[in-house]
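WSC domain-containing protein structure dump, as promised
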Amino acid sequence: IDVPAGVPVTTESCLPACQTEGLVVAGLENGRECFAPLASRATIPSVQISDNESTTVCVSDHDQYCGAPNRLALY
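structure tokens r here:
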């Protein structure tokens, strides 16, 4: 999902971008990427991991965590 141009990727920008697409879950990954898992992908195997594995801070807001490589922080 693309957040509006010039808007930094944070929880405050990713979730509304996903909601604009009609999706209710937002995932931040690797400090700067915004994803919206589709309901049809619910069958893809996933594993809940420890918060200790998702500790990359958001590039644009160092007070927030934005997942990690291959790790989504879901909101």
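The radius of gyration is 12 Å.
lmk if u need the other ones
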